[in-house]
Amino acid sequence: MSYASARDLPSFLELDRQLKVLRLLGKKGRERAASIKTQMRGLADTVDAFYQLLGDKHWIYHDHLSLTAVRAVLDTADGDADRAEQLLIEHYHDPEHLTLMLLPLRKLPAMRRRLDLVEKARQDYFDGRFYSTVHVLLSVMDGFVNELETVRRGLHARKPEELRAWDSVAGHHLGLSHAHKTFTKGRTATQEEPVFELYRNGIVHGSILNYDNVIVATKAFNRLFAVADWAVAREKEQRDQAEEPVTWSSVGRQLKETFGVVMEHAEVNRANREWKPAEYLLDSEGFTDHPLYLQTYELLTCWKRRNYGSLSDLMTHDLHNKHGKSVRSEVRRAFEPYPLADFEIRAIRHDMAAAGTVLAVLNHSGGDRVSVELRWVRENAQAHPRPEPMPGQWRLVFQPRDFLARATPLPAE
What's this model's pTM, rounded to 2 decimal places? Predict the structure, then answer.
């Protein structure tokens, strides 16, 4: 079934039942329950408001979207669907925002195998090659869905009712299954007028010609995330249906898991709202004490000493999830061709609560001297961005082409 409201999700209904138990645990329990109830009501209202405004334009609320960003879009648009669409596209079209949304996709094995293609689509997206972004992401989605079952069927072969995501915001009645009706709509006559929907069949079969625009390309990314949520929801439904009968211990575990997720999201969103960007230069107070300076210094020292094992330990958990035990070999292959003789850390741009960029000058053996930007993300073991004071570590976003191949040559000193 589809959900008329986010309040109808099984997890919301179960949480409401659990809150009634929590209210029986004295004053602190009642206060805790009231606080969580308010947060859950706010989450549900945001999801429903999103779909009320953008559902008919076939935008899908997915778990990778920032709750803070969606609320800002809704508040700024003030009921104007076209303005909301424009603001949502601007959010996707920010390189940092899209990169952070893409990171959790590595947890899905069938998607992880296709992330090189997703990265190419991301680059095309920011370079303005929207037609390429659309085609590549359509192929990724088809292949990803095709791999999920023994009986192979891609996304294009699925009926809308098959894409009802259990216990997921993508399962809203204006969500993925609703948008899928246009995705597979047949188009036989050639159409040269501009389109702004993700008409998969017409685009792939060559009957729709004018789809090279940022709206369709952004909807392709939006659909990719929604399909990933659907895949996770399928696994969750199968797991939950096989769970043990409800006992006091299982209720306690569910309370801990549910409340932990809610409070964690709230803490991340609060940190993001309160965050103020800062830039540190060589003469700035606290420059050499900043965590990003210390991590960068350690990383470049490991590189200089050709200690690729310790260097790989500073890479994002996504790299370790992708390559497993071979991660050190991957890091060695990337860094060994560029032996480092010396370095200087010049500046730190701490532009997001859980992300920042360090500017450094590298002196390579042989006399080459380049300026580079190293992007860091503060994350937990699941590669989820986590700002201070939440538990987490600064890890390098490992994309050699971004800070090695694209390094800016400098004149020799």
Answer: 0.63
